[in-house]
Design a protein that fits this description.
The chain has a single domain (29-82, 92-227), classed as 3-Layer(aba) Sandwich (Rossmann fold), CATH 3.40.50.360. Helix 2 (47-60) crosses helix 6 (206-227). The chain is globular, with a radius of gyration of 20 Å. Helices cover 38% and strands 15% of the residues. Strands 1, 2, 3, 4, 5 and 6 form a 6-stranded parallel β-sheet that branches. By secondary structure, it is α/β, with parallel strands linked by helices.
Amino acid sequence: MDRRDFLTAGLGATAAFASIGSVSTQAGDSKTVRIVGVSCSPRAGKTTATAVNAALAAAKEVDSRIKVELIDLGGMTISGWVSRATTNEPELPKDDFDKFVLPKLRDPVPDGLIIGSPSYFRTMSALCKAFIDRLAVLRSPKLLLADKPIGVLAVGAYRNGGQELVIEQIQAAMLCHEVMIVGGKPGAHQGATLWNAYNDDITKDEFGMDSAKKLGIRLAEAALRLAQK
């Protein structure tokens, strides 16, 4: 092999290696990739829902195969998980989780999930905790969310109002599903953090909205790569 052949072979190998981490955009690769965002604020349509929607919109722009859906838990009645000691105990009455949320997460299971919560006393909302508790039904008899990319965002009343703590709490809980935790890009490596300092107009928090969009993009890229496997 002369020098020219060696260099040509090396360039070919480099190109092949680089393509491993790239997202395929071939026309024949038309599988729909579904990303669901869940707003866990008791206030329907407010700052958390707006932030999750921004992340979903950014995710949708990454590739035409991506379809997005928002589940706004605001106004819903969702109780925490109650473990039954025996199979003879009566079934609990169905609430909004069973009626409206679970069907969107199980039939079919989304290819990616974005969870958003407000920061209340530097922890996730009670509604978010109840939602996460109830996801236990997706762990048995099979881990339905295993290897799915999960991104998290949080909204606080202050710039440093516990948002990163909330993100960590949600991520830690979701690891019980053996998911793949996804952060954002520079400025949002852990997840998106937003500051509600403008009377519920979260869009005026330019840094926070940018972090939400970066989270959505990163989540979309991860979901696309995993869907190709």
